[in-house]
Write a structure and sequence with these properties.
CATH class of the largest domain: Alpha Beta
CATH topology of the largest domain: Cobalt-precorrin-4 Transmethylase, domain 1
Order of helices and strands: EHEHEHHEHEHEEHEEEHHHHHHHHHHHH
Largest sheet: 5 strands, parallel
Number of helices: 19
Structural class: alpha/beta
CATH architecture of the largest domain: 3-Layer(aba) Sandwich
Helix content: 40-55%
Number of domains: 5
Length: 485
Amino acid sequence: MKRDRVIVAGAGPNGEASLTCEVRELIREVPRVLLRTERIPLIDFLRAEGIEYSSYDHFYDQAEDFAEVYQRMVEALLSEAAVHGTVLFLVPGHPLVGEAVTSGLLERSRAGVVDVRVLPGVSSLDSLFVELALDPAHGIQVIDALSMDKQRLNPALDLILLQVYSRKIAALIKPILMGSYPDDHEIWVVRGAGTPACEKARIPLFELDRLDWVDHATSVYVPRCLEGDAMEYFIGIVRRLRGEGGCPWDREQTHKSLRPYLLEETYEVLEALDAGDMNKLREELGDLLLQVVLHSVIAEEEGEFTLEEVAAGISEKLIRRHPHVFGDVRVSGTGDVLRNWEAIKRSERGERQESLLDGVPKYMPALSRAFEIQKRASRVGFDWPDLQGPLDKIREEMHELERALKEGPSEALEEEAGDLLFSVVNLCRFVGVDPEAALRSTVEKFVRRFQHIERELARRGLTPAEATLHQMDELWEEAKPKDSM
């Protein structure tokens, strides 16, 4: 059955000159043309062409708020489509940039109520970029001014506010902006970007609602105020959370209470790395950075040290331990770098140095700790001459474990199992494989295959507890090829 159809098209900022060829033809062909507002440059073209149209300007006067305005427009468009079959709805700029009516129509389309087709137009953003010579690749936050109360502002990015329809809206958003930017921060107010009648003014933020020419075609550009220093902004947020009137939970935290979160966030970073998900990695690194800053801010409050001292300390250490970069030491490769690194570390510790293996954290996962200890021993020559050595050691430890198994449960069984694991870690180190990452990958592979077994058994009305080992083995083999796809 053919459904009603709404074509949403962008009218662009500059009348007929902004129209695509397709939209121009549709204006002439579709018998029912509707406008979100008549206050657009395209109106002269419509009148010159003798195009009959109706607008929804009256909704702005009738409704309580803009959410209600746009909801009414959606309902009106559905009614028009029910009568005419197909209607053309023209909006200023691009129909997917700051157009709540388009969003509402698309929701109805997904629900199967109506067919919606969206045709692009020149966006007001494009015109603003040209008018203010902005490069969006440098980072720009775009927000609908009508939903400012639901947005998180980031002063480390440039900000563009669309839909600043009136001085009333300017007055509503001004205090929200002043909560994140200095009162005298210079901003641009632009009306009619992309049109010959474009008007713009550079003013301090506190004067935003004092311009008498702000209207439906107005946008606001707020330059970043942190000069690219997002770290300072971030640190300020953490200090505010910990400060008077901040978050009760954050204010209660101590070094000890935060310990489990530091470990948890580290593992989540590793998970994102293993998945190769860069967006997830960016997010998880932020969570891990929060733990570093929280510990530093707590220490600062207690008069122990500051975040600046943490940064200064690691900077000095990096320079000191890289004389081949910041000094005149020559190296021939990674081996020289690692030997120099260990020598410098021994020199730093002085009399405190009791063992080459000092400083490997006991709380590291056992596989990772074994790997690190073996690497340190290898750096001073305590290592096998070739691959045959670690392979033979694994066979030796395997025989000893088998002998312990025959003798029955004892302390020797745990010891021999540990020796075998240690030998396998040594083989991994010798061939350049991270044992922690390798085992983590294998565990995930097991999880995927076992979950395949569970799903397939469920389709047969069985659980793993009810299935035979033969049935599960068959499904396991079935899952193997999928891991290599």
